[in-house]
User: Fold these one by one.
Assistant:
Number 1:
Amino acid sequence: MEKPKTKPMDKEGEKTFSADRLDVWAFAQAGGQLAGRDQLPKYERLTLDTQGLRPDLFVDWQAEGSVRKAALGGVAQAWLQLRVHATVPLLCQRCLTPVDVPLVVERAFRFVADEATAEALDEGCEEDLLVLSRSFDLRALIEDELILALPLVPMHDRCPVAVPMASSDPDFDAAGADKPHPFAALAGLRKDQHGK
């Protein structure tokens, strides 16, 4: 398996950062940038429901840190902007064949001191809150966001095979055949009016 590529995009001489153990505050202060291209199987939880993993499937991501001042009090806060693109093979729920589903994530996260602060602020915040860490697992966040981006019902725009429209219950088909068409009576009325 190809070794995942992660390239720090920092200026020469500055601290380099790791996606596996990211010091979020230092990354934000430095205006750090990371980008990577990982093979899809690296994200094990994401691949649990996939159909036929292939070597041409990748997760491309970029992360950018920044420090912003809060409106009230002017306290500096660490932010992370995340962009992720991936294609995941899922099972089409209409024709039951594999379908490649493109996933795109673009999110901004604000970091707070601890879980208690995140819980207290969560309901009143529009942005996503995460706990500040010196060894933050960026790839775990990427995987979480991709899992959240999965469609509830994956389907082809146009299925490559004809979709059978049959019931597995013979009683269902028989019940439909016994019922008169709901507009048959209207058709009879129409003929009566034209016949006069």
Note: The helical segments are 24-29, 115-122, 138-149, 170-178, 184-195.
Number 2:
Amino acid sequence: MMDRLAQQFAFLNEADRLKSVLRATTLCDGSRQENSGEHSWHLALYAMVLADQAAPGVDIARVVRMLILHDLVEIDTGDVPIHSANGTAHASEAQMAAEAAAADRIFGLLPPDQAQDFRALWEEFEAAETPDAIFAKSLDRVQPVMQNIACGGGTWATYNVTAEQLQSRVGHKVARGAPALWDWVRTRAASFFETI
């Protein structure tokens, strides 16, 4: 039991480092950059509040677990904004390999049973093939959009994001898991772009 607790607390202490990883997205009031720990918490709240937007059969408790875990790899890799490098950096082969190595290290701090469970949830989120993961990914994509809308366009100007890029990089994934949510958000984002 003592070894198990030592492993669990080692993981929890390491997870605290996520609070120091800054994201490109600012808080809704634009006062400062959001950190990845705040982002993960906010997404868990998004899942609870927007559960009625999920497809039938989606397990919101599993979605919350995925969202709490999904960015822990950023402790090692940092946050890579979806619009950086004209949209090519976020899902690059090098980034995916770095995140997999980070997952090995970070989840490997846990006792084997928890390490396997958490890693499986992280991989499910990344693959975005199950109903739970599709909805979780939708929320992960929509939250920064809402942050940008709240603070007058936020990082869209920084990254020269076009309406077409927002639709292809974000809208498609949000609509896949929460079509009505994307319809609502898209109309609010439209004023920041010529066409959307």
Note: Residues 107 and 118 are 7 Å apart (CA to CA).
